[in-house]
Specification:
Number of strands: 13
Shape: elongated
CATH superfamily of the largest domain: Glycogen Phosphorylase B
Order of helices and strands: EHEEHHEHEHHEHEEHEHEHEHEEHHH
Number of helices: 14
Strand order of the largest sheet: 3-2-1-4-5-6-7
Oligomer: single chain
Strand content: 15-25%
């Protein structure tokens, strides 16, 4: 089965999906990278067709890129053209007039871009809707995104749910040889709370810092690790200092994706205080590592946990509620273990990566038979 992908080159979701098919069908899977190139050694079983497609706002200045992508696709002549990410990747795929064409939006390309105000928002909405309508088949990564796609394009041709999966053989606490030994000026930790996301307002790192300041008044043994980088880094460090908790927090900076299991294995509670998430696969990765999770009770995120079974939900942006949940888990090791064990079982039964990818393979096979 010969599949040609158009997808962001420097993205773990691209590596996981395209890489799985590359191993399944060596020599038959190709990728045209969008926006960023693929790092060396990441997709060794996949043919990378370069040069990469530059970001759409730059590429739009010339029709030559549009024609080059179309020529690449038709010269490659795959059995299936599959674009990951509706805006940019999906736009160029739609312009090739190739069929069968699968489009897999990831989230903000459907839930945010089309609703931006002004000329930019109007253009993005037009291009995303055009890509969704042009595609022969569309997939969604969550039930929330599924409904959002239906609202944006009510009479969409074909829509299928394929959630992000977690490779539980990689995200396995037993396979981490050694934990990271964090240190805090305030002294050693009794319980470590962790958050590993981009440091942007969307993901609520400021909420965690505020909650930590309140939780420490009742449990001074709590320590915090905040992994990732972003535009709020300096502002968050200042917030921690102003609240008097900077000695209780470690900011790790950007964490390579392949190092994530080791970081997760080094904490006791995973917190996801996001103001917005289409799905929240990070919570599933934490659960796979047998960590209890604390997440915002919002669409998308609530698909990735079971309240009072694999973790605790808190009311979105409610710092007092988040604080109470942190204190509850920090003071109860037995409950943490119970949630952690239930979390791994939940992931294995519902979000095991190989199981989802085998269904995706069958889905593509059916499309191939239909097209023939």
């Amino acid at each position: 089965m010969k599949i040609l992908y158009i997808a962001p080159g420097n993205n773990p979701h691209t590596w996981k999906w395209v890489g799985w098919f590359g191993e399944k069908y060596p020599g038959e899977i190709s990728l045209i990278p969008y926006y960023d190139d693929v790092p060396d050694g990441v997709l060794d079983n996949v043919s990378i067709l370069r040069p990469i497609i530059p970001q759409y706002k730059i590429a739009a200045l010339t029709g030559s890129i549009k024609n080059r992508v179309k020529k690449l696709v038709h010269d490659n002549n795959p059995d299936i053209l599959h674009a990951l990410w509706a805006y940019g990747s999906g736009t160029y795929a739609a312009w090739t007039n190739f069929s069968p064409f699968i489009l897999s939006p990831w989230g903000s390309d459907v839930t945010v871009f089309p609703y931006r105000k002004g000329v930019k928002g109007n253009i993005q909405k037009k291009l995303v809707v055009e890509a969704l309508r042009t595609a022969d088949y569309v997939t969604a990564t969550s039930r929330y995104l599924y409904h959002q796609i239906e609202q944006l394009v009510p009479k969409i041709k074909e829509l299928k749910l394929f959630p992000y999966g977690v490779d539980t053989s990689i995200f396995d606490s037993y396979k981490v040889p050694d934990k990271i030994k964090f240190s805090w000026p305030a002294g050693r930790a009794d319980v470590i709370v962790g958050m590993f996301k981009n440091l942007e307002s969307t993901y609520g790192p400021d909420l965690l810092i505020e909650a930590l300041a309140k939780a420490l008044k009742q449990n001074p043994g709590i320590r915090c690790v905040i992994g990732g980088d972003g535009s709020l880094r300096a502002e968050l460090e200042k917030q921690a200092k102003d609240l008097g908790v900077s000695e209780y927090i470690v900011f790790t900076g950007q964490i390579p994706y392949l190092s994530m299991p080791r970081y997760l294995a080094s904490i006791d509670i995973f917190v996801m205080p996001s103001r917005y998430e289409v799905f929240g696969v990070a919570a599933l990765e934490a659960s796979s590592m047998k960590l209890p999770v604390i997440i915002s009770k919002k669409w998308g995120m609530i698909e990735t946990a079971v309240d009072n079974v694999t973790g605790l939900f808190f009311e979105p942006e409610n710092v007092d509620d988040l604080t109470a949940k942190i204190i509850k888990l920090a003071g109860n090791g037995e409950l943490r273990n119970k949630f952690g064990l239930a979390g791994r079982k939940f992931v294995q039964e519902n979000y095991e990566f190989d199981s989802i990818m085998n269904k995706a393979d069958e889905y593509c096979r059916n499309i191939l038979e239909t097209s023939r």
